[in-house]
Design a protein that fits this description.
By secondary structure, the chain is mainly beta. 6% of the residues lie in helices and 32% in strands. The protein has two domains: 49 residues, no CATH class; 61 residues, no CATH class. It contains two helices and nine strands, in the order ββββααβββββ. A hairpin with a 3-residue loop joins strand 6 and strand 7.
Length: 145
């Protein structure tokens, strides 16, 4: 059976549940995009019956982990996630400011965000601050006049 662009193919549509599709795009022997004959939506092929061997047995590529780049300042400490990150802790006696993107904050300053609650500024970036809240660290805008 020839699986060419424009020919019919059997596959599952996640929107309407129909199985009859038209091939819209291919890369080599693999069908990459189909259009449902019932609802008209385009999506990747989810083979159910006769399909090209390339779609039934996909090859998986191993992806190497990204290397950090000193040029972009992508070290863990610069991103505020490493062990070298300055440790600022919550000080109940220190003043807490309400967060606003128009305000300017300094490292170690405490703030209160409407959604995330109370946190401590742990790092400054250009126009942004990294704030450690109870559950996680968030990047917020600041000094936007």
């Amino acid at each position: 059976m020839a699986f060419e662009v424009g020919s019919d193919i059997e596959g599952m549509c996640s929107s309407c549940g129909d199985v009859w599709h038209v091939i819209v795009a291919k890369v080599g022997p693999k069908v990459t995009k189909v259009q449902c004959k019932q609802c008209g939506k385009q999506h990747r092929l989810k083979p159910t019956g006769d399909a090209p061997e390339a779609n039934l047995n996909p090859t998986r590529k191993k992806v190497a982990p990204k290397k950090s780049s000193a040029k972009r300042g992508a070290s863990k400490s610069a991103r505020g996630r490493g062990a070298d990150e300055p440790t600022f802790s919550w000080d109940p006696s220190a003043p807490v400011r309400a967060y606003s993107m128009r305000e300017r904050f300094a490292a170690g300053e405490q703030l209160r965000h409407k959604k995330f609650g109370e946190g401590v500024v742990v790092a400054l970036e250009e126009g942004k601050i990294r704030v450690r809240f109870k559950a996680e660290t968030k990047v917020l805008l600041h000094d936007r006049s």
